[in-house]
Model the fold of this input.
Amino acid sequence: MSSFGFGTLTVALFALVCCSGSDEKTFEVHMRLEKLITSLNKILLLEQTQWKHYLISNISHDTVLWCHFTCSGKQKSMSSNVSVYQPPRQVFLTLQPTWVAVGKSFTIECRVPAVEPLDSLTLSLLRGSETLHSQTFGKAAPALQEATATFSSMAHREDGHHNFSCLAVLDLMSRGGEVFCTHSAPKMLEIYEPVPDSQMVIIVTVVSVLLFLFVTSVLLCFIFSQHWRQRRMGTYGVRAAWRRLPQAFRP
Done:
């Protein structure tokens, strides 16, 4: 018998086979974990002569739950495999850099914190509806850790017209559970055209020539202004000396 749960776990234990046809009123049941690490919390929900229905809680990891019971005066036991899961509640997407030139590389990173079991998790990096990369995780990965998927690609012109996102899928169908899907918030890349090398040379040359002409014009203006000032000051000097001469020396 197997069970699956998150947070609290409902386990139905039946002893109909052992007690078939029995009308005894006493049906004793004792439950325990395979490895007694934490105390087991159980609440009796329903019961009849031949079965009891419990709500089990405080199970934080995969384990085997053992049920020991007395049926028709004989002690019996049965086990139930218990699997614990943590669905992907948050999915974070990062684009680095967010502004990239055509032909240059960029990186997509997807992070999902606190999810288990990791071997049932798949992270898919999407461009629009197109899957760029999918990543699964092995059983050796520790539980309740941050799952990460990374993918690098070259930027294309059409990348600026699509949303990038991450899809986290926790598929528990093979374990008797369901499928949980969570999307990240979409993000977009800013794509620009790189400047060709020849065009850059032309731009640098034109800027250099304009800068040279500007500096030259400033220097010429300064030289001409100084020359004009000297000529003007020279004329005023001759007139002043003429006025200072005595009348007798003037022609």
